[in-house]
Design brief:
It is built from three helices and eight strands; from the N terminus they run H-E-E-E-E-E-E-E-E-H-H. The protein is α+β, with helices and mostly antiparallel strands. The chain has one domain. The chain has a five-stranded antiparallel β-sheet with strand order 1-2-3-4-5, covered by helices on one side. The chain is elongated, with a radius of gyration of 27 Å. The termini are far apart.
């Protein structure tokens, strides 16, 4: 007599096989979905970081220095070195004078005038300023040029960035958890064809601007961690157009006077 159907053992094996295949399919789907989400978040952070980096680069390239024949510490580049920039606590702070809408935006009241900006990393919960910092990221502060500040100051108000209550930081981009800046002081310090060794973490000459500036941003991991030195940083090197003028305001970088090699030794620059 011919037997039809499946035995109980065959049915159990079939159910077990279907369960294993379903578990593998679900795990694979979740892994792919998670990987897609992480990649999407990472690309989004990269785009915002690239935008922030381009804003800072545009701001540095629009750096302002008066052409009045002398060096002026009110317009010099200032670098506060706090570490390697791997997290907010050891990130650097830079400050300079500029023109244009980069960093401050087209609608800012100072966009059409000379103004000073300060760029830094601030961590969520920071209470150093008038308003609490809501999200970790790259921030900027802006203040009017010295020439535009009130001449009559009976209350002796400090209009510099040292007055934390005066200028509230504005978010440029979140997701950036670290910032490091290094400078190449002068073109004379380039060693052979490799200028990497010549970049320094300090710039003591606050009455001038460096020859080149190296910016390194570190972005936040989509899972809430932060990328450290074992990952590729987002880095750019910018040539500062008015470097020569800041060393000797009496001659523009392309003038015949400078080409003649008669530049005087500026004070404060070794």
């Amino acid at each position: 007599m011919r037997r039809c159907g499946f035995t109980m053992v065959e049915m159990l094996l079939a159910v077990l096989l279907v369960g294993v295949l379903t578990s593998v399919a679900v795990a694979t789907f979740n892994a792919v979905s998670r990987g897609w989400q992480i990649s999407t978040d990472y690309m989004d952070k990269m785009q915002r970081t690239d935008f922030a980096l381009n804003q800072v680069i545009s701001g540095l390239r629009s750096m302002y220095y008066p052409h009045d024949g002398q060096q002026d510490d009110r317009y010099g580049f200032v670098l506060t070195n706090n570490g390697d920039g791997e997290d907010p606590d050891d990130s650097d702070v830079i400050e300079w004078s500029k023109t244009g809408s980069a960093i401050v935006g087209n609608k800012s009241a100072v966009a059409d005038t000379v103004h000073r900006v300060q760029v830094m990393i601030l961590e969520e919960g920071n209470h150093d300023y008038k308003d609490r910092v809501e999200v970790t990221g790259l921030y900027a502060r802006q203040c009017p040029d010295v020439a535009l500040r009130p001449k009559d100051n009976p209350d002796d108000i400090d209009f510099s960035f040292a007055n934390d209550e005066m200028y509230q930081p504005v978010l440029i981009s979140d997701g950036i958890v670290g910032f490091n800046c290094r400078v190449l002081k002068t073109a004379d310090e380039v060693q052979s064809k490799n200028e990497e060794r010549s970049f320094e973490d300090e710039f003591a000459e606050s009455n001038s601007v460096p020859y080149k500036v190296e910016l390194t941003f570190r972005i936040a991991d989509p899972e809430g961690r932060s990328y450290r030195s074992n990952t590729a940083p987002v880095m750019r090197i910018i040539r500062i157009p008015i470097h020569e003028q800041s060393l000797d305001g009496s001659a523009t970088p392309a003038s015949e006077e400078r080409k003649g090699g008669g530049r005087k030794t500026p004070r404060g620059v070794k």
